[in-house]
UniProtKB/TrEMBL annotation:
Cofactor: FAD
The keyword Lipoprotein belongs to this UniProt entry's keyword annotation: no
Reaction equation(s) it catalyzes: urate + NADH + O2 + H(+) = 5-hydroxyisourate + NAD(+) + H2O
Its EC number(s): 1.14.13.113
Enzyme class per UniProt: oxidoreductase
Protein's recorded name: FAD-dependent urate hydroxylase
Length: 394
């Protein structure tokens, strides 16, 4: 069977690896011209890492991952530690240590594992048709390709999604209410310990660092603000200094350390209301095309990896038809993925002071906490993952 995948991101490449290992002919097209992912890093919680283990990449991913041994919340103004606790219970309960990883490193690993000869960059799909026996993709340069199946891993503004949901009310993105700024810096223990996820909180804002491989921190800031505010990259990081003026020395140090010319991304955060039509004939969607998710619970990439896992299992075990197998994939994924979208949205509402009393109560709950409630929340996001296959949390 020949498979066309549109999108060489985390979901597209992992699905490609899964299907190629089943013996299928896989070809990937992406409009990017080089490996320049949006976002500096991502959280691979235990469910996401397990998918990568299943793909045979366990050792490589462990080498890319940061040693995140503990988690702490600090008061954004004073720098006082509100709570600090180990993350060992996540590993013990799930059977797998989580890792933050640099997105470009993981994406390159996935692309190289799939095989660069299978991946065609600089190719933007502009149309697709399904005649019932084959799917044809048309690209901006006028070329076409035909296959037995097409998977759209083409992101939040997915053309494949528009095809799959044709005739339905338009799928609209929803602004999550804040801007995220992220990037990579060298580890600096004046900001936080080298093996700790450290988050400063105040005013509905957050500033955090997480360890990734290579002696680096992944940093991120959340700033509640309206969508569409003008920003010129030439203005650098001045807006961060303004937004976090008077914050704790660790946050000031973090801002001072950032070199916008080297690593700094400013991204408005949007998501999509859950919907349950992911398949049309021989065409299906996955990843952000199917469940664009805010990053507030760190499950966006993990959910895309779960898509790849279910697709692989579905095509390994079902033989009636391509359309039938895709329907089974859809049935297995939409509820779980939609639940994670809503969990992330709820978490974002709590942390970003959209309801000031709720956020103040959350801050109060952090003071002196032993971490057990936070651990329960993390495990609650992964306990129903399909990759657990009956051997999940203990």
């Amino acid at each position: 069977m020949k498979v066309i995948i549109i999108g060489a991101g985390i979901g597209g490449t992992s699905a490609g690896i899964a299907l190629a290992r089943l013996g299928h002919e896989v070809v990937v097209y992406d409009q990017m011209r080089e490996n320049k992912p949006v976002g500096a890093a991502l959280s691979l919680w235990s469910n996401g890492v397990k998918v990568l283990n299943w793909l045979g990449l366990g050792e490589q991913v462990a080498a890319l991952g940061g040693d995140m041994a503990s988690m702490a919340y600090r008061d954004g103004h004073s720098g006082e530690t509100l709570c600090e606790f180990p993350l060992d219970p996540v590993t013990t309960a799930s059977g797998q240590k989580p890792y933050p990883v640099a997105r470009a490193d993981l994406q390159m690993l996935l692309m190289e594992t799939l095989g660069m000869e299978r991946i065609h960059l600089g190719m933007r799909m502009v149309g697709l048709t399904d005649d019932g026996s084959q799917v044809t993709a048309t690209f901006a340069d006028g070329s076409t390709d035909t296959a037995d199946l097409l998977l759209g891993a083409d992101g939040a503004r997915s053309l494949t999604r528009a095809y799959v949901t044709e005739g339905m009310p338009p799928i609209e993105r929803t602004y999550s209410g804040y801007t995220n700024v992220n990037g990579l810096i060298e580890v600096d223990e004046e900001i936080g310990p080298a093996t700790q996820w450290t988050t400063y909180v105040a005013e509905g804002k957050r500033a955090a660092v997480m360890p990734v491989a290579g002696g680096r921190f992944y940093f991120w800031f959340d700033i509640p603000q309206p969508a569409g505010l003008p920003y010129d990259r030439a203005d650098g990081k001045g807006f961060l200094s303004e937004a976090f003026a008077g914050w704790a020395p660790g946050v000031a140090r973090l801002i001072d350390t950032i070199d916008p010319a080297v690593s700094m991304n400013r991204v408005e955060i949007w998501d999509i209301d859950p919907f349950h039509t992911w398949v049309r004939g021989r065409v299906a969607i996955l990843g952000d095309a199917a469940h664009n998710t805010a990053p507030d619970i760190g499950q966006g990439a993990c959910s895309a990896l779960e898509d790849a896992f279910v697709l692989g299992i579905a095509f390994a075990t079902n033989t009636v038809s391509v359309a039938d197998t895709l329907e089974r994939y859809q049935a297995a994924r939409t509820e779980r993925a939609g639940d994670l979208v809503l969990r992330a949205r709820k978490r974002g509402e709590e942390t970003h002071a959209y309801d000031p009393e709720a956020t103040a109560a959350w801050y109060a709950s952090l003071r002196g906490a032993d971490g057990s409630g936070i651990i329960r929340g993390i495990l609650g996001n992964i306990e129903d993952s399909p990759v657990n296959v009956g051997s999940g949390l203990l």
